Amino acid sequence: MPLRIRRPHRLRAVVLIVALVCIVAGCGSNSSSATTTITLPQKVVVSSVAGDEMSTLLAALYAEALLNAGLRVVRKDPYPDWPSAYAALQSDAVQVVPGFSGDLLTYLHSIGATPATTTTPPSTVASSSTVAAQAVDDTTTTTVVLPTGDPKTVEDQVAVTRTLLP
């Protein structure tokens, strides 16, 4: 007399066999498999200067662009003024504080920032009217001379700001 299995038992038996096969396959060890390390994307802290609507808008735009580029973005509350934002930038508490180049330049002048002097090999010194070169041994000390008057164009402001930043 053949053994008859009722339908509900047949379904349970199939489900049990499939589950056992999945468990056995999942528990198998493969000695050639490597440990997967998940690296987190770089974190960028973005803020703005309080009361400056353009800085707030640009901070939001930069934050979204950085997120879309795959970076982790932390948004901080706005800093009350440029001195506190600049101090946060210098201490690396924040990496992006957008604003007008003229505002940053005005702040740098107010704290008495002076152009940086760099020492470079003589072959890399540019021949420009804004660069004064003085030969010392095998190196040349290059001092950037600021344009006379108030820099009006963004390019001039950026050039001056680069010389004033450490």
Description:
The structure is a single chain. With about 170 residues, the protein is an alpha+beta fold. The chain is about 40% helix and about 15% strand. It is built from five helices and five strands. Strands 3-5-4 form a three-stranded antiparallel beta sheet, with no helix packed on it. A hairpin with a 2-residue loop joins strand 4 (about 130-135) and strand 5 (about 140-145). Helix 4 (about 100-110) packs parallel to helix 5.
Sequence-ordered SSE layout with sheet pairings:
Elements: H1 7-27, E1 43-46, H2 53-68, E2 72-75, H3 82-90, H4 101-110, E3 117-120, E4 131-136, E5 139-144, H5 154-164
Parallel strand pairs: 1-2
Antiparallel strand pairs: 3-5, 4-5
Helix pairs in contact: 4-5
Mean pLDDT: 73
Number of helices: 5
Helix/strand order, N-terminal first: HEHEHHEEEH
Give the N-terminus to C-terminus distance in angstroms.
Answer: 94 Å
Rg from Cα: 31 Å
Helix percentage? 40-55%
Q: Runs with pLDDT <50, length 5+?
A: 118-136
- Subunit organisation of the chains: single chain
- Counted beta strands: 5
Structural class: alpha+beta
Characteristic key phrases:
166 residues; three-stranded antiparallel sheet; 14% strand; rod-shaped
